[in-house]
Amino acid sequence: MKALVYDGPREVVVKDVPDAKIEHPTDALVKITTTNICGSDLHMYEGRTDLDPGMVLGHENLGIVAEVGSAVVKLSPGDRVCVPFNIGCGFCRNCEEGLTAFCLTAHPDPKMAGAAYGFAGMGPFWGGQAEYLRVPFGDFNLLRLPEDAQEKEADYVMLSDIFPTGWHCTRLADMQPGDSVVVYGAGPVGLMAAYSAMIQGASKVMIVDRHPDRLRLAEQIGVIPIDDSKGDPVEQILEQTRGRRADKGCECVGYQAHDPQGHENSAMTMNRLVDSVRFTGHIGVVGIFLPQDPNAPDKLEQKGRIAFDMGKFWFKGQKVGTGQANVKHYNRQLRDLIHEGRAKPSWIVSHELPLDEAPSGYQHFDARDDGWTKVVLHP
Amino acid sequence: MKALVYDGPREVVVKDVPDAKIEHPTDALVKITTTNICGSDLHMYEGRTDLDPGMVLGHENLGIVAEVGSAVVKLSPGDRVCVPFNIGCGFCRNCEEGLTAFCLTAHPDPKMAGAAYGFAGMGPFWGGQAEYLRVPFGDFNLLRLPEDAQEKEADYVMLSDIFPTGWHCTRLADMQPGDSVVVYGAGPVGLMAAYSAMIQGASKVMIVDRHPDRLRLAEQIGVIPIDDSKGDPVEQILEQTRGRRADKGCECVGYQAHDPQGHENSAMTMNRLVDSVRFTGHIGVVGIFLPQDPNAPDKLEQKGRIAFDMGKFWFKGQKVGTGQANVKHYNRQLRDLIHEGRAKPSWIVSHELPLDEAPSGYQHFDARDDGWTKVVLHP
Amino acid sequence: MKALVYDGPREVVVKDVPDAKIEHPTDALVKITTTNICGSDLHMYEGRTDLDPGMVLGHENLGIVAEVGSAVVKLSPGDRVCVPFNIGCGFCRNCEEGLTAFCLTAHPDPKMAGAAYGFAGMGPFWGGQAEYLRVPFGDFNLLRLPEDAQEKEADYVMLSDIFPTGWHCTRLADMQPGDSVVVYGAGPVGLMAAYSAMIQGASKVMIVDRHPDRLRLAEQIGVIPIDDSKGDPVEQILEQTRGRRADKGCECVGYQAHDPQGHENSAMTMNRLVDSVRFTGHIGVVGIFLPQDPNAPDKLEQKGRIAFDMGKFWFKGQKVGTGQANVKHYNRQLRDLIHEGRAKPSWIVSHELPLDEAPSGYQHFDARDDGWTKVVLHP
Amino acid sequence: MKALVYDGPREVVVKDVPDAKIEHPTDALVKITTTNICGSDLHMYEGRTDLDPGMVLGHENLGIVAEVGSAVVKLSPGDRVCVPFNIGCGFCRNCEEGLTAFCLTAHPDPKMAGAAYGFAGMGPFWGGQAEYLRVPFGDFNLLRLPEDAQEKEADYVMLSDIFPTGWHCTRLADMQPGDSVVVYGAGPVGLMAAYSAMIQGASKVMIVDRHPDRLRLAEQIGVIPIDDSKGDPVEQILEQTRGRRADKGCECVGYQAHDPQGHENSAMTMNRLVDSVRFTGHIGVVGIFLPQDPNAPDKLEQKGRIAFDMGKFWFKGQKVGTGQANVKHYNRQLRDLIHEGRAKPSWIVSHELPLDEAPSGYQHFDARDDGWTKVVLHP
Predict the structure, then answer these.
(1) Residue A201 pLDDT more than 90?
(2) CA-CA distance, B14 to C36, in Å (whole number)?
(3) Is D120:D50 a contact under the CB 8 Å cutoff?
(4) Are the C-beta atoms of A65 and A126 separated by less than 8 Å?
(5) Chain A 27-86, CB below 8 Å of chain D: which residues?
(6) Cα–Cα distance, D286 to D83 (Å, whole number)
(7) Which of C308, C317, C319 minimises the CB distance to D319?
């Protein structure tokens, strides 16, 4: 089958690879019809992670069940399904508690928790930027889509990762209706966090970024754009909140945060969030931080550490919740919101490309070229 | 009246000061019968904070209502009461949500949240290591005690701070029945955190310290002592949990953490907790961290920062909750547990002294002299 | 001052009564500018309750602080405020837990929990369908309004009761984003429950009633009207939910439920809700039920009992939450939603009348005359 | 294999039946070593339900994995396991939310939610009062036991039903540490509810019954016995709580409640609980109520209805949660409590019998013969 393969830093290529197939009685095989490029694909694309060449990328996948293993009872060939980026078993302690991003079974290394498709450090599972995808524990992992699956395919595919991930960030921040919320980072995940806050009844949502195309997308859904290249974002948040600061904060940037002058500073958004959020406020963090980052410019960062404002954080009585989204914990409800016409996450899609043009999509998205906010591929 | 006054680093003196009195219609005046020396009094005693000489110390207070202001309706002279260390108004947004440690009214500086008696940075309110204490918003702040108030005075006085603070730590860590819990720090607050975990049905509670007297007290309530002077505590926790690490963790040490060799390292316990707690586990932090600490040995610490293992923390999907305890959120239930004979926090008391001997109590407690685990004063 | 006084069944009259005034240091006196007629005023108006003649009615009040007692610190004359219908003290166990509808201090009868203005069985407190209102525990009870208070007065007055009451119903039902919700009763409270569900991100909200004017108002905010005079509402809900029934249900009718033929049947809506909601679903009940109802047509009902489908309820593993709304638990956040333009509850107002015309307003509203959905009075 | 088979009202017989075997790739086959007689077996034994003769009874099962299907990955022959009484699939909406008592897959009737072994109305699955038991979805359903499995077999078997069911009742009642709790019914489930409340830190637990042997067992764990044959239990609860009533209540009796004179009254415990619990208190109901009960003496009860004190319940702002326990939601934590020596639920076992003597065990337990509190069978 054809698939997009990682060949080394900033080298991805579409080529023939062995067909994905059923390997265990609980597997399902999905013919991929839509698969996105994710911001976390860029960490791998840029060579910052330790991904070995040869991996098929792609963890935002949607398609049609092609074949099922002998133990599968819920699914039939022909079902349209969305694939959560995390692979869960459904019966370990974490999966049972809804913490499917930290499955204790799927990853071959027993010291690890969590597995994903086409993802550095998350197991050997090939991704879905390909014609077919093998899905372990099919009954547990696959989300069936209703009769408007094709018509709203660009919306439903967002259920694989970024819509639940943005939503997760608001839950980690314990956002409540009526709250004011500030989101740092207006990439696809940050935009989804802001959108999730709006859907859940935030009174005011602010988003901090400096790319005009992203800030414009935020404005389209009623979110207040804060351009941090035009002044201290904390000061701007103070103005927006009559000096009260935001009730809750969302970190959607991660370890590769840059200041407006282009210098990497992995502690910047966390410390700004502590400053932007009120006493007793909560902060959700879905931007990725790495346990080790040997290529980082800073010595602390190489060990996965940041110079964190612990004193201010403690004194303010704040809370922080972190980690990859447990997609399955949210995707049914978000599917229903899309189906009933109450959510339309596809508003951020800027480009739909055939799989063959994926390498060009990676290049533009990685360069943050103006207007390349979200790239969707159709194998 | 007689009171214990801070005169400068390691200088406290018992002397005559102007009488505490009713200043506002909602005030109550309490004749103090028992008042403790707290571990956080030592931060002030040692001169590490910016407390001005002349302050009356003491925020762990219990006594008898002597007089009430004209607006007070719940209390009458003669009522035996315990005084939460935080001063709340009862009607600001934070107090209404139970976040009385972050009252927006009581502290005279409108940018601050939270006030306390005899406490650096928490307002001008005199403490209760004295004959009398003025309690603002008396109806809201004072907890009435039942008919066994005198008999169990050494238990009920713990409701003013350390029992709720230890309990708060387990709630910040979202401890659930059946969980395994590790507590760093076996001072009075850490012992109360361990005790709180036991009362709430933890399956296994471990506590890390190196003072034999403290570890012995922990053992008395069924807690497993871990001596970090005898080996890496994380390794010992792995052994105790069959390699699973603890479900939840409690930080009861704070910014003045020392390694067994005596070097201060403010990041040590936080990073060890990230390591000691499993994927998706929660960590509660009631050990104090300061927004600025100009006298700290380390440059980061002077700015209130620590070199935090953010990458590992995020990768494990952990959560951290922090801050002073909202005493009123817990003190009724804990009072009822004491009254019904289900809790007896006074087991940690090592010394009961008259107020006049308080300076000697400070000296021994500050020196961590063997056996000086908790000092109770009787004015 | 002028006030609307209950004179007996279906007899209300506007007349001069003694001026409301400060009686305790914590009181505030409010000059009323807007006050609504509530559906629960009709229970009293109809003489179904044991209200004594002479009571000033009105528990949905908004106005300007005219005077404050000596202990009041938060409020100043001239502040525009909204008055929650429940009177809380702020320091009893229930108020501290946010259960201000069940205050243990305000009601003179120590066996009762909860007090309100101008309300049968809720204490001797006069209502606000008058020129002035005495508000006990002013600092605790009054909600300050922002600079758009006058401009949005018809929205902010809804914070006194029906908007928080409708919202409370969704919280009692534990409504989650993405849920389908059915509301029984499209009176003002039912409409607010439906509106609250929409704001919090329900995927689909259905409302059951038979009055065309009410169902039209529901449609205006995207809610699906279900006319129970045109067929079994449970069947209609099954159709709307592909046979799955609603995830959550709201009871906004109460003990005086009638079937479409006009017969009173106090068990009807509860049993229909059990049938309308899925296995494990939750039901919130803010429609009023009375502990005794001597004038009820049915013998069970006279004792405050209903013939409840306990077997089906238990078998389905459902939950029910009940009771008057703890207004203060919601009114800050709802105020912020109004202020930021994210909620506009005044869309249900049908009539604004001067106080003198209140008796006519009662008559039309009680008759459920077409188009009389919500009456607002201006003293 | 040998099994206990229901032959008709009060007729159970141990006889040879076809061997249980693997029927689906996800099945596991368990050799039963311990299996209990449950109070709900008695509803079937007495012929009150519509169970067809020929069913193998027994839903409280523990044993050793004998064989696994081809899709099973977690389990191996020889593993010692406890079997939850509910059969869940692990991937339907309810199982994913932890509501395994309401699985949407396992029961063959698509309108039903929930399946169980050897249980009227819960599907065709044979019970475990037999030599072998087929367990569908083995990886999901079976709980592995640690190295002390044999030594503590009488404790671990309680994880199959009554310990989690009692615990569930306290969770449905939202019991919090420090609460006072009243449990109606001191059968095995009621005793486990009381025990669960003690473990979770209740300040005072009261239990209402009239059988001296049961009340004695309650006293052994520090629970206050209330004998309702010696006076109104509500009055006794008022005395125990200084007139405050209990904070939370547990219903562990169900539809076959009898008054001390022996008359069945299915509404009695629910209405007494409403009366016994304070304003805003919660009530958990795990006693079984049936949607229809054609053989009931009362006309309302035949339709599954009770004459419920809705008015008082609403006026007090109480909440009720109901339904069978989601065993898997609790059994890991309770297993860990047993393993660490913090819980020992076997204290209620009165008789251990070989399977052949099961009919005699049914007879004595059904007769509530003195001292027959819990019967454990060993096939």
Answers:
(1) yes
(2) 61
(3) yes
(4) no
(5) 69-71, 73-74
(6) 19
(7) C319
Q: Which residues of B touch A319 (CB under 8 A)?
A: 172, 319-322
- Contact yes or no for A213/A371 (Cβ under 8 A): yes
β partners of residue D2: D16
DSSP string, D20-57: P---STT-EEEEEEEEEE-HHHHHHHTT-S-PPTTPBP
| Amino acid identity for residue A187 in this structure | G
Q: Are B102 and A279 in contact (CB under 8 A)?
A: yes
| Cβ proximity of B242 and B252 under 8 Å | no
In whole angstroms, how far apart are CA B313 and each of A27, A78, A112, A289, B276? 32, 41, 14, 8, 11
- Separation in Å, CA of C113 to nearest CA in chain D: 7
Q: Each residue of A326-349: pLDDT tens digit?
A: 999 999 999 999 999 999 999 999
Strands C180-184 and C204-209: parallel
Record: contact B328-C96, CB cut-off 8 A: yes
Would you state the pLDDT for residue D41?
95
Nearest chain D Cα to C112, which residue?
D279
| Contacts (Cβ under 8 Å, ≥6 apart) of B62 | B32, B33, B34, B35, B80, B81, B82, B83, B145, B153, B156, B157, B159, B160
Q: Are B293 and A311 in contact (CB under 8 A)?
A: yes
C323 touches D: beta carbon within 8 Å: yes
Burial of C124 from C-beta contacts in 10 A (0-12 / 13-18 / 19+): exposed
Residues of chain C positioned with their CB less than 8 A from the CB of A163: none
* Tokens, residue D135: 């367990």
Question: CB-side exposure of B183: number of CA atoms within 13 Å?
Answer: 38
Cβ-Cβ contacts under 8 Å, C332 against chain A: 178
Name the one residue in this structure whose structure tokens are 């066994």: B148
Q: Is C333 on the interface with B (CB under 8 A)?
A: no
pTM for the whole thing?
A: 0.98
pLDDT in tens, B322-348: 999 999 999 999 999 999 999 999 999
Q: Which amino acid is at B196?
A: S
Instruction: Count helices and strands (H / E) in chain A.
Output: 13, 16
User: Do residues D266 and D198 make contact, with C-beta atoms less than 8 angstroms apart?
Assistant: no
Burial grade of D24 (CB within 10 A; 0-12, 13-18, 19 or more):
middle
